[in-house]
Design a protein that fits this description.
It is a single chain. This protein is of the alpha/beta class. It has two domains: about 5-140 and about 350-360, 2-Layer Sandwich (Nucleotidyltransferase, domain 5), CATH 3.30.420; about 145-310, ATPase, nucleotide binding domain (Nucleotidyltransferase, domain 5), CATH 3.30.420.40. The chain is about 40% helix and about 25% strand. The chain is built from 14 helices and 13 strands. The strands form three sheets. A six-stranded mixed beta sheet has the order 3-2-1-4-7-13. Strand 8 and strand 9 form a beta hairpin. The longest helix is centred in the first third of the chain and has 26 residues, at about 60-85. It is globular. It starts with a strand and ends with a helix.
């Protein structure tokens, strides 16, 4: 098979900063996949939408259903405007959605951003709901990105994504391993909000703070960090376990930011150890890769064994949108797109639900 596929990837992360849209062209040649990001934009959420998403875990069934369609309309109209602006004619859209609940032990994972609404307002077919089939097969439904990393970034064996949640992955020729390590931008942005900031740019405030050893120990004692992978995290865990420690510690915000940054670096390096890695060059993406203070902390805790480096900025910011476009393509082609080695499920699955008219895509 040698063919090109233009797919739109959408990612709305737990850091609540907005919708990432990436137009990704994939090429398959000699049993290898290549890609290029033709165009990409981040579309910020208005304050009202951001607050709705932040409070979505407490909404009634009716209000959550309304938000699901409202967000799907926003996704769809954003894609339609993006395609017109860049003169794009993609085959379809791959949408991760926005995670509200993630409790795989209860067979529950819910992403909103209604795919039928996306399809209607974008006037394109949509593939979505990538996590549930793996959860129903006994897996964590996360992380899903390692499957795409394995095929799209062969120059690296180790990966770190610093989004709302930090997750690590290690690839070899025949195996993939990975899991969520800790809250990342969820916690940093939560603390920055106390200063009236949406985020602490480059970790400038955190850099001026001091370590609070008591808070550092309390964070690292949480039960999740004593568990082995496969394992995964959701916003509910942060809200119930982490936010109270940050809110009730009576620590000045700059010190809490400093300490939480060290907590992330400590847990990420523990995660790399937990994957069985000894010495690796680690590709770092996600918003946290733009936080210089956090990147410095990661390398200090890596102690030369792990070297954390960010690729070009477009890859840093849009890797997850790229990967979900790729996972959608694999679903379209009928190929597995979730690795049971990473999620702990009984088998690899080809996950994702199809919405809209795919007849034109098949031709």
């Amino acid at each position: 098979m040698e063919k090109e596929f233009l797919v739109i990837g959408l990612m709305s992360g737990t850091s609540l900063d907005g919708l990432d849209v990436a137009a990704c062209r994939f090429r398959h040649e000699k049993d290898k996949w290549g890609y290029s990001i033709e165009a990409a934009e981040s579309m910020a959420y208005e304050d009202e939408m951001q607050q709705k998403l932040k409070g979505s875990v407490t909404l009634s069934g009716l209000d959550l259903s309304l938000l699901d369609v409202e967000l799907g309309k926003f996704f769809g109209t954003s894609v339609h405007a993006f395609c017109r602006k860049h003169d794009l004619k993609p085959l379809f859209v791959g949408s991760h959605g926005h995670t509200v609940f993630h409790q795989p032990e209860k067979l529950l994972t819910l992403q909103i951003g209604n795919p039928e609404a996306i399809s209607h307002f974008s006037q394109l077919p949509v593939i979505a709901n990538f996590r549930l089939q793996d959860v129903l097969s006994g897996g964590q439904g996360a992380p899903l990105v390692p499957y795409g990393e394995h095929h799209l970034f062969p120059a690296y064996n180790a990966f770190l994504n610093l989004g709302g949640i930090a997750n690590v992955a290690l690839h070899s020729q025949n195996t993939m391993k990975g899991f969520d390590t800790c809250a990342c931008n969820m916690g940093l942005n939560h603390l920055a909000g106390k200063l009236g900031m949406s985020f602490d740019k480059n970790g400038e405030v955190a850099k001026t703070g001091s370590m609070n050893d008591s808070l550092f120990r309390s964070l690292n004692k949480l039960d999740y960090f004593q568990q082995k992978g496969p394992k995964s995290l959701g916003y509910e865990w942060f809200e119930q376990e982490v936010a109270p420690l940050l809110d009730n510690s009576n620590t000045p915000v700059k010190d809490a930011l400093h300490t939480f940054t060290h907590h992330i670096a400590f847990q990420v390096n523990n995660g790399m150890d937990g994957l069985g890695s000894s010495t690796e060059k680690v590709m770092v993406t996600g918003g946290g890769a733009l936080n210089g203070f956090l990147m410095d902390a990661l390398n200090r805790y890596g102690k030369g064994r792990f070297t954390y480096e960010a690729p070009d900025r477009k890859t840093v910011e849009f890797k997850e949108a790229l990967v979900f476009a790729f996972l959608a393509l694999q679903r379209f082609l009928g190929q597995p797109n979730v690795s049971s080695q990473v999620t702990g499920s009984k088998k690899d699955v080809s996950a994702g639900s199809l919405h809209g008219n795919f007849k034109a895509s098949i031709q």
